[in-house]
Design a protein that fits this description.
This protein has 376 residues and is mainly α. The chain folds into two domains: 223 residues, Citrate Synthase, domain 1; 97 residues, Cytochrome p450-Terp, domain 2 (Orthogonal Bundle). It has a three-stranded antiparallel beta sheet with strand order 1-2-3. The model has no long low-confidence stretch (mean pLDDT 97). The structure holds s-citryldethia Coenzyme A. The site of s-citryldethia Coenzyme A (SDX) has 18 residues, from helix 15.
Amino acid sequence: MTEGPSLIRGLEGVVAAETRLCDLDGKNGRLAYGGYDIDELARHAAFEEVAYLLWHGELPRPAELAELKSALAAARQIPGDLSQGFRLMPRATDPMRALQAAVAILGMHDPDATDNSQAANRRKAARLTSQLATAICAHHRARSGKEPIPPSTDLSHAANFLYMLTGERPSAVIAKAFDASLTLYAEHEMNASTFTTRVITSTQSDLHSAVAGGVGALKGPLHGGAGEAVMRTLMEIGEVANVDAFSDQALATKRRLMGFGHRVYKAGDPRAAILRGMAEEACRQSGQFKWYEMAVKLHARINAAKGLIPNVDFYSAPLFYSLGIPVDLFTPVIAAGRIAGWTANIIEQHDDNRLIRPRGEYTGPGRRPWFPIDKR
Ligand code: SDX
């Protein structure tokens, strides 16, 4: 038996670290990064400003923002052996598995790979944020049998992502919606993937190793994989007229509906409210309004029946779909936002580190004698 506090399943409610990055008020459904309300940041800040805020603790002044933007633009290329690697991967490779491999390969090339100093980690955070976007798009092009689209040098981080994915320079409205999505996904306190990066960092391992772990955690359908699952649910329903019958069936069979519920938010996920408005606009603009209508109707039915709230992944699904993002790239897109928060937490963990090592409650058999195999 272990001494000390008893088992807390899923570490629910356990405070594992102090952090200056994210203030998450689950009771009142409020969220802020570094003291700035998420609604303000999503409306007014570019993703580059939010990344700078997370890495440095303050919003950038003009010269600092310009310096970050040029560092991000300079780091958009990925090594040739990574592009080659994408061409050699099985075409059906899950994009999140390809991304995890890509992070490891990028670590092989990063000049600061084993330097855990704050300055080196900030450099790596910016480089990897940029390279991750290129890697996601380059893998998608390779698995589609196409050549990668070289990154632009003049577009914003968000607009360049969409350009590398589609080959078209996005409109200002679409680029802003995608930019705000990256901000909304950038950071979220001690979620499973961020906590994973902290555990790996606490052993004094390096940033790329920690991010590769975070990618693995985000892949799961209970976490980042939920967005893709929401879109597949909407596609399964097919039409607005089918929502009631689907809801009745799902409730009757106690089906776990992706995009609903949250470990911390009980009064509503503030990001979902913002994404709902963006999804309405984007679905209308793209002539695919039915996905938004279906989501709203499903939300109302499930909330009325079970009191479950939609989380960040519920309305980002129709939004991403209307922006032309392939469904199995939804989770990599979430990673393209969360890389800012993962790396900020890695920096913070290194700055005030203690090995993260909880206990296990033993429930196996008591002590017993050994018997050689011929006596068993
Ligand atoms: C993200 O932690 C973060 O911050 C994550 C995230 C971030 O930004 O990093 O916000 C991003 O991961 C959002 C969540 C995405 N995942 C999903 O949408 C998957 C579906 N949601 C659930 O599996 C669930 O709500 C969790 C995993 C999100 C939270 O689960 P908890 O806190 O462990 O709650 P639970 O599973 O114990 O559920 C409590 C009750 C249960 O009822 P009982 O069995 O006790 O009667 O609520 C029910 C559950 O059955 N319930 C659901 C449900 N979620 C909870 N029932 C049906 N469908 C659901 N989605």
